[in-house]
Fold:
Amino acid sequence: MAEPPHRIRTATAVVVALAAMFGTGLYAALAPAAAFAGTWFPLGIVLAALVALGVVASVAHLATARPAGPELVRGDLPAPMLRLGAVARVISRTAAAAAAAGVFGAYVLPSQPLPVAVVAVLAVIGVNAAGIRVSPGASTGLVAATLLVLAVVAVVGLGPPGPDETGPSSAAAAAGAAVTEGAGTPAEPVVGTLQAAVEPGPLGVLTAAAFVFFVYTGLARVAELGGSLRDPMRAIRRAPAAAVLITTVLVLVLSAALLSGLGAERLAGSATPLASLMDIGGSPAVGVLVRIAAAAATAAALLGALSRAAAGAARLARAGELPAFLGRGGPRGAPWVADLVLGGLTLALTVAAGPVTAIAVAVAAALLHHALLHLAVLRLPGRPATAAFVAGAGGTGCLILAGALPGWPLAATAVALVAGWVLCTVHARSAVDDGGADTGPSDPEERAA
Structure:
């Protein structure tokens, strides 16, 4: 029997994975990376890519080793660890949404980024609650537009110096510092209060790699498509790996252009580095194009991250880990209650913290989830030695990068993880005591058929 026409091919899955990576990270993550590692931060890009490839390998091994697919399910890990992994995913996606909103505001209106970010979050909450999602066709358009913009940025950055050698105006610099960290001053670098008396250099490469890893946090998007894929096993094995390699090459070219056009110090001080490069290169008209592309990419990232955060919370609710009302769906199947609740949390994080802090929180939570995924591979019976080596090295790399993040967002992530885990544990036990759930261990990552 012929495959249904709506099934997604592997080539389209690569585009979907690229669209998930061509978001906030490309437009904002390289600035804090440069602030911590200076001209060494391209090495951090390579390290981040290696960690991402390790995650792809473990996801593919889980997908092919058991019928449950690439998701963590009951039996992979003890129930408390499964719960922690599910909470980490929700936190990571919520923080990623807040980061996308902040960067969207910075590129759209540098003088008043926060009000724009708030409006963007409110708009996306409504769109998500209505059940509107980004289609593979829209992903193709986003990837094509991003590639065009990156090509222009590379030409300007690697080309001869423009007439303006003085850098961005003081107003733009002040706006960039303000959007990044509210506690900073216009003269401070992008990382503001996050930079703990460490001079940029080789010792900051691990921290730079952690920030760059934010570019790759969408690598699990293909695995989430599940039954929509025409050839799930092949797509899950190949599409994310191809997308990681393509993205790595593009990010390395982009980093070379930014270092050549801005320099490490000026790059570290910009909240909108791609637009700043256009300003310095004497290409204000192209700068408008870059801002439009950044707005489109970050808006799509905000929509996708918030919808997946709400879906994760809804799955936890259906598994009895969170209150059942969070799993309530609308006419189009969207978990509109979870959309509203997670949207409110995203809005609070957007207002309370700058995008750099949100990026750090998103990366820390994502790396923890990936470390647990590697651990699940190590627990599989009869695993090949190669898979065990990749899982061991990958899990260690995830923990090292997470530990290299600045202390304040790392502590905030730990608090959020503990609070979420305790909330889920208490609710699950309460549901069991009330006879409203099965007495066996809950599976917070189990999907509906």
Remarks:
- The chain is about 70% helix and 0% strand.
- Residues 1-5, 164-197, 436-449 have pLDDT under 50 and may be disordered.
- The first helix runs from residue 10 to 21.
- The CA atoms of residues 319 and 408 lie 32 Å apart.
